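We modelled the chain as a single entity of 294 amino acids. Its sequence is:
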Amino acid sequence: ARRVRRRKKRRQRRTERRSLGRGLLRDDVDSVLLVLKLESPVNWRWRRLELPKAGSFEGFGGKIFARSRRLERGAGDFAVSADGKHLVIGQGLHMDKDCSLMCFDAATGKQEWAVGTTLHLESSPALGEVPGVGEIAVIGAGAIEGADGLPTGNAGEVIAVQLADGKELWRAPVNDPESSPAIDADGNVYIGSGFNGNAVVALSGKTGDRLWTADTGLPMLGPITLDGDLVIAGGGNSDVVHSAANARGIVVALDKKTGKRLWTRDFSDAVLGGVALRDGIGVCGVRTGEVAAL
């Protein structure tokens, strides 16, 4: 019993350290989404977390109430609508199947809608306005691969739905699109194509039609960054768990209108996170444990 209590305390400490911003936490151990609120609990099952006043929660006062929502299986990171009313998250990790893109009311935790796929949704969704359509949610559904590294069925798809009601707008075939997409001011969608894809792809936000494909020679797994007329993406032939025997990594900058490659930076292992930009400098993490400024 003492060992069980110690394990529970360790899990609780890990959960409380996993701050993802926007007043939210995700518990990777139990696949529980914790929505943090400042106001007093009303007709909810709440758990009180004693959080530090520093870091992402500075200004929250340190004592925050949390509402939990079990997702039934693993999950990627989430996106919150611009008005703060909707929280969208995809179910599933690498070997999961029959997962759903889910939307919750950010104030109550009530599920608003879910859209299914035979695949998994382990990347973060993107939310954005598409002219003539309204606000949409877009996410990539990655392939389920066998021991040979090839898809066992559907090779992957990008799914777009209306944020307001979850109505499906389109599905576009893209090989293993497990990067987190981005949506520009024109409503176009940009996403990386991973293993068995080795590309960055641009799609119409209205129809899902492919605008261009930029071959990169390596799986593009990192979140997409948009900067003016540039599409910036990282990738490599390693994944989060395993480093490839001949590990290589890359960051590319592409012309947003044509997909033409404008510059490339090579690394000794994969770039799996996004590229942060400020004052004309890009910063990214490399799987070697290094941080690079571009």
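As a brief sanity check on the tokenised model: The first helix runs from residue 2 to 17. The mean pLDDT is 80.
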